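Narrative of activities, Objective 1.

The group set out to show that a structural description can be obtained from nothing but a protein's sequence at a throughput compatible with the screening campaign. Below is one input-output pair from the validation batch, recorded exactly as produced.
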Amino acid sequence: MASILYLGGTGNISAASVRLAQTQGHRITLLNRGQRDPAALRLPPGIEWLRADLHDETATAAVLGDRTFDIVAQFIAYRPADVERDIRLFTGRCGQYFFISSASAYEKPVRFPFITESHPLKNPFWSYSRDKIACEDLCLRAYRDHNFPAIIVRPSHTYDTVWPLAIGGWTDFTPIARLRRGQPLIVHGDGTSLWTLTHSEDFATGFNGLFGHTAAVGHAFHITSDEVLSWNQIYETVCSTVGVPPNLVHIPTHALIRMNPDFTGSLLGDKAHSIIFDNSKIKTFVPGFRATIPFREGCRRTLAWFQGDPARQTDHPTSNTALERYLSIWNRMLAAGADQPKS
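Output recorded for this entry:
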C-alpha cells in the first residue's frame, strides 16, 4: 500500500485513477482548491483532502508541512514554472513524481504516423504542447542532475465526463442538444484521418500500474487505447449513441482555422493528423495492461453521466452561435466555389 498525493485528482482523467487507487488499497490525498463536487466525480469516501492553490507556493508548503509521499501525481502542471515549483516542493519528499504531459507534444506535422515514446517532441502549432515539452525537459534535467524521481506520462485524447469531439465538444452538452434538434455537427477535413480515443478508466489501469515501479523513474510513457477510428466513425458513434442518424458537415481544416485561428493548435497541432500509438512500452512495464472499453461503450457511459444530472446538460448559446457561424461561412464559401473538404 502506497501513500499517494494527487495534485488535482478531480479532473476528467485523474478522477478515474483516484477511484482505482482506492480499490487497490492505497492511502490517497488530494491537494487542490476544492472547487469540484466529489459526488459528481464518483470519488469514494475515505480520501484526505488538502485545500490549497498550487500557484501559491508558500501556502502549499504550509499545507504540506513536513509530510512525505511514496507517489506524487501531478495532473495540473501546464507551464515550466509549475514544474520548477514542484521540484522545490518535493525534492527528497517522494519516491516517484509523475508529470502528466500530453501526446500532442509529439512532432507535428507528422512524418511517421506510428508513434513510440522515442518519437521526436516538436509542435510549432500549439503553445500548450510546447509548454508541456518544456516541462518534460525540466523533469528529465532534474532526474539527470539531482536524481529527482520524475516519470513522464503522455495521455492522448482521453475522455469520461467530456465529449471527445474536435469541434464543439468537451464539457459542453451543446453538440448533443444540437443532434436532438436535428442540427448538424462539424467534422474537420473529410473525416477519414485516423485517431485514438481512450477512456479514463483504461488510462488509469496503465497509469496506476506504474505506481511503485522503481524502474520506471526517468522514463516517458504514453498510455492509450489500441482502438483506431476515423473521425467519421467517432462522430457517427456519437450520433448512434444519441439515437439520431449521422448529421455531419465536413469543413476543411484550413477553412476552420481561417474562421477561428484558435483552432490552429488543436487541429494542426493535434487532431488533423492520423496517428497510431504503439503501446508496447507501457505493456512491458505493466504486464497485462490492455484498454478494454471501446468507444461505442465509453460513449454510452459518457451520455449516461451527463444525463445523470440536468445541470450537466447545459446548451450554451455562445457555443451554438459559434457553430452556426462556421456553418454559415462555409455555406457562403461553397456558393463562391470553395473546394470540398480534403484536409
